[in-house]
Amino acid sequence: MKRKKITSGADDASSGEKKNQIVSDEKQSWSRRNFLKSAGMGAMALGLYQSGCKESPKTSQNPDPPLISGFERTASGQDTTAVWKPFSDRKIRVGIAGYGVCRFGADFGFQNHPNVEVVAVTDLFPDRCAELAKKCGCSKTYPSLEEMVKDDKIEAVFVATDAPSHAKHVLEALRRGKHVASAVPAVFGSLEDADKLFEAVKTSGLKYMMFETSCFREDLYAMRTIYDAGGLGKLVYSEGEYFHYMGEPIDSFREWRVGLPPQWYPTHSNAYYIGVTGERFTEVSCKGMASVVNHLKAENNRYKNPFGTEIALFGTSEGGMARMGVSWDTPGDGGERGRVRGQKGSYYANYEGLEKNLPDIIRPALPPGVPPGGHGGSHGYLMNEFVSSIIMDRKPLVDIGMALNLTVSGIVAHQSALKDGEWLKIPQYKIS
Predict the structure, then answer these.
(1) Mean pLDDT of the chain
(2) Rounded to whole angstroms, what are the CA distances from 280 to 56, 271, 416?
(3) What is the pTM of this model?
(4) Domains with residue ranges and CATH for the chain
């Protein structure tokens, strides 16, 4: 069994190329090879990535607080035999905004990428700003994003600020002529902001990418790669889940997480259809159940949100169906995961289907010094995808269309839940 090694940073999921294919006559042999390959990082490598964002500060009474769901770090599922080869000498000058409870600003590895120079950082809290600068090896700091984006030296900005501010911060950076990457979600509960953001990106000619972590998780990367190669056919049914128990809300700027409507934070689950296919949800019926958790009772939060769990049934642009759930108030096993069933095959941890000529599903090599990072080893890949899209002047994987389709479908789902599951149409976003 032979295959071509992935040798270029350009060989990623959004290039559209059907390279690096393997030929296997037996599905069992193919699955076994990929399992052994993904396990080959070894215990020492895994140990490097097991730290992450904690639910609460480390104290003598709480010496090892649990990881926030989804922040597990892993080095598995990455091709360790391939060597990343540089494709440009260009260094993009990046500014980073935000270093909150999850230290997101420094966690995607911009400071480690050979084609990036972090030239400025900002956070509203001076101590956090100083720590972010130290982590990024940067001496220039600004008191706010609004001040930082006035810096003409900056070409691109990573917005890792509080979720309610994402849209306005992205719009301000675009107005100042910067390429922008943003943490999720693209907008926060506002269809009006979604339309404004879509028009701003479309007319600017600049790159925009949302860092949806599920899109570069090991399983979803495999699903998308097989889908693009025709191994799944049209998807008949998909499931996605973001289950994250929050009996008490995670610390957040101005307490924006307190009472957060689950489907306002839908992208980690919705990616298990949209991030696999690049298609869209067209309509939704969503149900919620009144929560027993205090901050998720309508009278106790600013959103007047009564739900801690919202389960949505979507119609898809392929004519299929998807069940996507977000839950804050159900203790037990959690995380970000999904499954897909298509006309030619299904993916439940591995591929089962009709196609025998399958592509290599192992995530490619990252630049030297760039760790895969958190959320299942997705952080480094998202950052590299954004940087590569600028250098190569191509559309990034999670462009403005996909970002809004991932986000807005959840906003409409919450509206449906408030109307006891009424079927509602979902706005569609696409830039060709």
Answers:
(1) 86
(2) 36, 10, 18
(3) 0.85
(4) 92-210 (3.40.50.720), 213-361+400-425 (3.30.360.10)
